[in-house]
Amino acid sequence: MTLDLSGRVAVVTGASRGIGYFIARELAAAGAHVIAVARTVGGLEELDDQIKTDGRGQATLVPLDLTDMAGIDRLGGAIHERWGKLDILVANAAVLGVISPIGHVEAKTFEKVMTINVTATWRLIRSVDPLLRLSDAGRAIIMSANSAHSA
């Protein structure tokens, strides 16, 4: 079965490596315009080069640290201005923190995990929900596990 996503717009967070990288490539290969979000500019550029080499779909690169809540809000506004809708959200960015007894987890580590895995995901959904509703088939896929970084 061949998936045709021509004319569709997709956001993929954590797109510079691992599963996010491969999801972004596959969405682009199916014809979607991929808005690739990650902190790592070099990884995003490698993804863009690979999408161009693959020969189908396009990417817009968005270097963004998801702890930047105002940046997440700006992302939603920019998508609205340029495309007027969003068809697919793949919220793949996640952090594991440390695996240890709770008494050994530093507050700073816990706050980082909660900020990326919960608060940023909530803010992202809040930012793009109106855009997903403007699509005739808007879908959100939320991934949150260390395995989100392993392919």
Class by alpha and beta content: alpha/beta
Strand order of the largest sheet: 3-2-1-4-5
- Report the helical percentage: 40-55%
What CATH architecture label applies? 3-Layer(aba) Sandwich
Secondary structure layout plus pairing:
Blueprint: E1 9-13, H1 18-29, E2 33-38, H2 41-54, E3 58-63, H3 69-83, E4 88-91, H4 107-134, E5 139-142
Helix pairs in contact: 1-2, 3-4
Structural write-up:
The chain has 151 residues and is α/β, with parallel strands linked by helices. 46% of the residues lie in helices and 17% in strands. The chain has a single domain (9-149), classed as Rossmann fold (3-Layer(aba) Sandwich). The chain has helices spanning 18-29, 41-54, 69-83, 107-134, and strands spanning 9-13, 33-38, 58-63, 88-91, 139-142. The chain has a five-stranded parallel β-sheet, sandwiched between helices. It is globular, with a radius of gyration of 15 Å. The protein starts with 8 loop residues before the first strand and ends in a 9-residue tail after the last strand. The model has no long low-confidence stretch (mean pLDDT 92).
